């Protein structure tokens, strides 16, 4: 019985010891397994982090390229805008030149200046001192041009930088066409400025009146000066 009891105790001890060894083995295996998973996760995270860093760097490079392209587009647009403005200015200059040479009809605000011979001429006086001469017309035209008139006509006939005005007795010849008094000088431009320039104290109107010329200045909301044929078509 004593021997059998010892066998039972020894068997029990062996069982417990085996269980402990098995548990220790399983625990150690589990720890090792957990350690391997953690390493793989760290490797993956490291790999993902490197990929993310590379992608962020690529995004920054692309963003920089985008900024450079946008800057190039802005410069091109600015250049096109400048060219468009230059073209607009050229077209505007061409239209002004066509207007100045009489190739186009001109319409706009302006004034009309009417010059007439004196209404009363003393019988003993020299009649030439009481009629309109080319010098009077020149004074009016020069003042209008200085004051910014865009186009001018005498009795409806456009005049230009090379026009000639000549007094022939009681009539005035404008580029070879004769007109009797009264003489109406039409000018396209700012009516207020043109009127003020003519009527300033000691100005053109005062000078004409002092030389016995009847002068009437009227502001016009609408004036139309017709185009003229070129010399080659006349």
In brief, what are we looking at here?
The chain has about 230 residues and is an alpha+beta fold. Helix content is about 55%, strand content about 20%.
N-C termini distance: 157 Å
CATH first level of the domain at 106-225: which class? Answer: Alpha Beta
Give the low-confidence spans.
Answer: 230-234
Under CATH, the topology of the domain at 106-225 can be stated as Alpha-Beta Plaits
Q: Strand fraction band?
A: 15-25%
Residue share in helices? 40-55%
From the alpha carbons, calculate the radius of gyration and give it in angstroms: 52 Å
Task: Name the CATH superfamily classification of the domain at 106-225.
Answer: Protein of unknown function DUF881
Coiled coil: 52-79
Keywords: Coiled coil
Protein name: DUF881 domain-containing protein
Organism: Bacillus salitolerans
Walk me through the structure.
- The structure is a single chain.
- The chain has 234 residues and is an alpha+beta fold.
- It has a domain at 106-225: Alpha-Beta Plaits (2-Layer Sandwich), CATH 3.30.70.1880.
- 55% of the residues lie in helices and 20% in strands.
- The protein is built from four helices and eight strands, in the order H-E-H-E-E-E-E-E-E-H-H-E.
- It has helices at residues 2-100, 134-146, 191-199, 204-210; strands at residues 106-116, 151-154, 157-158, 165-168, 171-174, 177-180, 183-188, 214-225.
- Strands 3-2-7-1-8 form a five-stranded antiparallel β-sheet.
- The longest helix has 99 residues, at 2-100.
- It is rod-shaped, with a radius of gyration of 52 Å.
- Keywords: Coiled coil.
- Residues 52-79 form a coiled coil.
- This is DUF881 domain-containing protein.
- It comes from Bacillus salitolerans.
- Belongs to the UPF0749 family.
């Amino acid at each position: 019985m004593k021997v059998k009891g010892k066998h039972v105790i020894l068997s029990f001890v062996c069982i417990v010891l085996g269980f402990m060894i098995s548990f220790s083995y399983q625990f150690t295996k589990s720890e090792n397994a957990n350690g391997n998973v953690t390493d793989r996760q760290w490797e993956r995270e490291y790999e993902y982090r490197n990929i993310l860093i590379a992608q962020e760097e690529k995004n920054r490079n692309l963003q920089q390229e985008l900024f450079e392209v946008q800057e190039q587009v802005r410069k091109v647009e600015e250049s096109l805008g400048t060219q468009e403005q230059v073209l607009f200015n050229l077209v505007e200059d061409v239209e002004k030149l066509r207007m100045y040479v009489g190739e186009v009809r001109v319409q706009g605000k302006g004034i009309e200046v009417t010059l007439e011979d004196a209404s009363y001429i003393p019988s003993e006086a020299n009649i030439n001192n009481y009629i309109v001469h080319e010098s009077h017309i020149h004074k009016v035209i020069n003042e209008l041009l200085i004051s910014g008139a865009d186009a001018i006509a005498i009795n409806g006939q456009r005049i230009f930088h090379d026009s000639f005005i000549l007094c022939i007795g009681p009539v005035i010849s404008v580029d070879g066409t004769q007109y009797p008094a009264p003489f109406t000088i039409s000018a396209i431009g700012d009516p207020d400025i043109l009127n003020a320039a003519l009527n300033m104290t000691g100005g053109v109107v005062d000078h004409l009146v002092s030389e016995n010329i009847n002068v009437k200045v009227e502001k016009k909301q609408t004036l139309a000066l017709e185009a003229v044929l070129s010399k080659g078509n006349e």
